[in-house]
């Protein structure tokens, strides 16, 4: 199904650039800096602000939405780019000759992946309210490189061999970016946007704040732009429990599932006063216990 322009503009630009083959040279807060795909340069000048989901090229003075940068990269019209985005036909038509050796030197590369034992990383999960053993069961301790510098992060694997990466200051991913599917042989599926919410749900289930079907399968989207990839998996399950963020993007993702005829139970009501599942988990447990548990929370 073709995307509308409004749907396309909700796709994170950094996710699109990653799938198209471009990785950030450096990251500072919400700002991702890239070597411009439009010219050769020694200093990254193209900035993407992930909070606003817009880009600005300091070298040329241009900027805008994902539509604007996609048209420039693919050298096509708005309609043509929307078609490419809808079909996932991105990387092959990139003008690779415009990329410099600096991009290759500065892309995010995985150095190693090991059992999660790093105390600062485990402390990060603990501060998010997540039980340590769930993090160690489902995540890795990943060393990655950007340019000449090495870093460590919690790595959550996807089905294509890439990782979602998190630590106290970094939120990113390695290539290839994809969804993550945890198959426990169940006909029941729980869907989250990110792996922090997935680990939060496991923690809440253990604490009996919620009760999941025994050995539920889990689908972690890792990006709402992958909602289309999730359809065959949701269709294969008897029941689908959806735990998306209480924001516009989360609501629109659920509208997309409805438009595709996917039946699901929206479980956002039990954390309706919070941004997402992890935000609910991180609040004072005594405050959580006073909440009225809505019908349907026993899944």
Provide a quick synopsis of the model.
With about 300 residues, this protein is an alpha+beta fold. It has helices spanning about 5-10, 15-20, 65-75, 80-85, 100-105, 120-125, 130-140, 195-205, 230-235, 250-260, 275-280, 285-290, and strands at about 25-30, 30-35, 45-50, 55, 60-65, 110-115, 140-145, 150-155, 165, 170-175, 180, 190, 215-220, 240-245, 265. It has three domains: about 5-105, Zinc finger, CHC2-typedomain (DNA Primase, Chain A, Alpha-Beta Complex); about 105-175, no CATH class; about 180-290, Dna Topoisomerase Vi A Subunit, Chain: A, domain 2, CATH 3.40.1360.10.
Layout of helices and strands:
Blueprint lengths: L4 H5 L3 H8 L5 E3 L2 E4 L11 E4 L4 E4 L4 E3 L1 H9 L3 H10 L13 H6 L1 E7 L4 H9 L4 H7 L1 E7 L2 E9 L5 E4 L4 E3 L6 E3 L5 E5 L2 H12 L10 E4 L10 H5 L3 E5 L4 H12 L5 E2 L10 H6 L2 H5 L10
Parallel strand pairs: 12-13, 12-14, 14-15
Antiparallel strand pairs: 1-2, 2-3, 3-4, 4-5, 6-7, 7-8, 8-9, 9-10, 11-13
Helix pairs in contact: 3-4
């Amino acid at each position: 199904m073709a995307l509308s322009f409004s749907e396309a503009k909700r796709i994170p630009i950094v996710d699109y650039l990653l799938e198209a083959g471009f990785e950030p040279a450096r990251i500072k807060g919400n700002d991702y800096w890239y070597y411009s795909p439009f010219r050769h340069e020694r200093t990254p000048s193209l900035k993407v602000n992930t909070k606003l989901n817009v880009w600005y090229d300091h070298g040329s003075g241009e900027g805008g939405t994902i539509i604007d940068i996609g048209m420039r990269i693919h050298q096509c019209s708005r309609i043509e780019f929307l078609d490419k985005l809808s079909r996932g036909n991105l990387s092959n038509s990139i003008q690779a000759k415009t990329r410099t050796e600096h991009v290759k030197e500065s892309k995010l590369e995985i150095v190693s992946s090991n059992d999660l034992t790093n105390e600062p990383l485990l402390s990060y999960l603990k501060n998010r309210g997540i039980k340590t053993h769930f993090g160690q069961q489902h995540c890795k301790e990943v060393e990655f490189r950007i340019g000449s510098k090495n870093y460590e992060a919690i790595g959550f694997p996807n089905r294509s061999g890439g990782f979602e990466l998190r630590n106290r200051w970094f939120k990113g991913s390695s290539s290839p970016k994809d969804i993550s599917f945890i198959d426990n042989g169940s006909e029941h599926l729980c869907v989250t946007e990110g792996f922090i919410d997935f680990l939060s749900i496991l923690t809440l289930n253990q604490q009996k704040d919620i009760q999941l079907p025994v050995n539920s399968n889990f689908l972690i989207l890792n990006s709402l732009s992958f909602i289309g990839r999730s359809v065959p998996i949701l269709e294969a399950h008897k029941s689908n429990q959806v735990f998306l963020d209480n924001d516009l993007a989360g609501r629109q993702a659920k509208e997309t599932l409805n438009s595709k005829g996917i039946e699901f139970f929206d479980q956002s009501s039990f954390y309706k006063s919070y941004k997402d599942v992890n935000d609910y988990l991180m609040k004072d447990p005594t405050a959580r216990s006073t909440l009225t548990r809505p019908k349907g929370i026993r899944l």
